[in-house]
Amino acid sequence: TNQGAPTDDALADESDVEAYIVNGRASSQQTRFALTMEEIDGQFYRGPCGATMVTREWAVTAAHCISNSHKNDLKGRLDYLYVGAYEPWTADHNGKGNAGRPYEIIKIVKHIEHWDHKPGAGSKNDIALLRLERPVSKDFQGFQTMELGTSGVSGNAVGNVYGFGDTSFMGSKSKYLRYGTVPYVDHNRCKQAMSKWGISDDMICFGGDGKADACSGDS
């Protein structure tokens, strides 16, 4: 069953959260998208990252969403997943949360960070799994999971980045899910452009066209 959505008061208190889709557009609901939530005394606050549902019980996120400055420093802020988040702080005219779109808030019971990841967003093996206390309900209208890719990416590929937050650098936060379309960047070109980040063979690059992109908090 749906649990209580975060309130505007909770939103106002998240001063340490940075989440940007720069030059993003309003998204039609993506039910596979989940927003991490922190629970404090029964109140939900936005967590540090987003996640993608890959089954009804498991989501994938970045390992630095668990270990950023040091090991497990953000783990305590990944208490729940708000599955299907679109407008978490808005109700429709009937009082239904998430602007009337289907959603579920489910507790995270297991955080599995890649064993070879060192804390930080620029580290190798920056991937983690989140297991939910129960699967997403079968009656979740329109729910879909993300298929995991198994083949290479061509030079003409494009991707979409999703998230909440500032719509421009240091701008105002968005209260609804936004997305931006980003082109694939050749690995060698990416390594040259992002050399200080140490782009490794287990990484893939999208972006670089100056039109739209993700930033801190969209991991």
Structure, briefly:
Helices cover 5% and strands 33% of the residues. The protein starts with 7 loop residues before the first helix and ends in a 5-residue tail after the last strand.
Describe this structure in words.
The protein is mainly β and 219 residues long. Helix content is 5%, strand content 33%. It contains 2 helices and 12 strands. It has helices spanning 8-12, 187-193; strands at 21-22, 25-26, 33-40, 43-53, 58-61, 80-83, 104-113, 128-132, 158-166, 173-185, 205-206, 213-214. It has a 6-stranded antiparallel barrel. Strands 2, 9, 10 and 11 form a 4-stranded antiparallel β-sheet that branches. It has a two-stranded antiparallel sheet with strand order 1-12. β3 and β4 form a beta hairpin. The protein is globular, with a radius of gyration of 17 Å.
> What is the CA–CA distance across the termini?
27 Å
Largest sheet: 6 strands, antiparallel, barrel
Protein structure class: mainly beta
Give the mean pLDDT: 82
The topology string of helices and strands comes to HEEEEEEEEEEHEE
Q: Count every helix, treating DSSP H or I runs of 4 or more residues as helices.
A: 2
Strand content: 25-35%
Radius of gyration: 17 Å
Shape: globular
> Largest beta sheet: what is the strand line-up?
3-4-5-8-7-6
Identify low-pLDDT runs.
1-5, 7-22
Number of strands: 12
Keywords for this structure?
single chain, 219 residues, mainly beta, six-stranded antiparallel barrel, four-stranded antiparallel sheet, 2 helices, 12 strands, globular, disordered N terminus
